[in-house]
């Protein structure tokens, strides 16, 4: 197979600089804004990720959809409500460090390090790298390096929006018997007694989930494997909650489901000076007969 069937090259989406990865098995697009994977198509050119039809694509706001990188905090800032939810790196342009491809895969490495702008928000020296590999799966590796003199407490997420046929009644396997924190239900905690059936709105943070999550749909499963992550977040705003998002059409909430690969809340962790930590997610689809 010649390498013409694989590529890693600059492209554009709206006003955003992007990187396009092509392999024999599919393609992916990464925006330099936030190092956000904004598109991933499988071998049948079906969308695996969901991008809001009304997402801003001009750099004025993070992309709504795809896989935003939430770092160095997940959710609201622990002590300063003036700071954006989900950290600041998804608002900033990352540098493309490396593009490469061979017969089987295409690779993009993007990075962001501390500067005056980040230190005003979070006064620490760091380097954050996102490595995206496309072969017959989509692999993301987010590596954080503590370049400061102090230990930090971190929470983080690859905040993945998956395209689904209908979010209502979707089954998500892998979360059975886990403890969760339910933001939608005022922060109560519960235990997931059996396979999760999603009836939006849902906003649940599952703790100590080390394995794969699987989104079951009538004609395909989406597998989300991971390493370096103890938390999985399941979110869909539902028909009422969607009205609070001016970059999601009111009738589009049923087209997506977030299953996020994270370390958050009870699974926050500390990173000492000179230490690094890698969070990874691996995504692939599987065609199935109707197995609802
Ligand atoms: O991951 C779920 C969540 O924390 C929801 O509570 C909701 O706020 C969602 O993320 C989107 O957050 P954003 O800051 O991207 O609008």
Number of domains: 1
- The average pLDDT is 96
Helix segment tally: 2
The end-to-end distance, rounded to whole angstroms, is 37 Å
Specify the helix fraction band: under 10%
| SSE run | EEEEEEEHEEEEEEEEEEEEEHEEE
CATH architectural type: Distorted Sandwich
The secondary-structure class comes to mainly beta
CATH T-level topology: Beta-galactosidase, Chain A, domain 5
Low-confidence stretches: none
Main sheet?
A: 9 strands, antiparallel
CATH class categorisation: Mainly Beta
Q: Which cofactors or ions or other ligands sit in this model? A: 6-O-phosphono-beta-D-tagatofuranose
Structure summary, number of beta strands: 23
What does the radius of gyration come to?
18 Å
Spatial order of the strands in the main sheet?
6-7-8-9-23-19-18-13-16
Concise summary:
The protein has 292 residues and is mostly beta strands. It has helices spanning 116-121, 238-241, and strands at 7-13, 16-23, 26-31, 36-41, 69-70, 95-101, 106-113, 126-134, 138-146, 152-154, 156-158, 161-163, 170-173, 179-182, 188-191, 196-198, 202-206, 213-216, 220-227, 231-236, 256-263, 269-271, 276-287. The longest helix has 6 residues, at 116-121.
